[in-house]
Amino acid sequence: MLALRNSLIRNVSARVLRPTLPITVTKKPLSYSKPLNQEVGEEYTATGTITRRPLKIRRVKRIDDSVAKVSRPAPFWEAKAVFEDEISPLSLNHFEKKFLVMIFYPLDFTFVCPTELTAFSDRIKEFKEINTEVVGISCDSEHTHYNWNKIPRNQGGLGNLKYPLVSDFSKRISEDYGVLCEDKSFPFRGTIIIDDKGIVRVININDTQIGRSVDEVLRLVQAIQFANQYGEVCPANWKKGDSTIIPDQEKARSYFSKLK
Question: Annotated catalytic sites, by residue?
Answer without folding.
Answer: 113
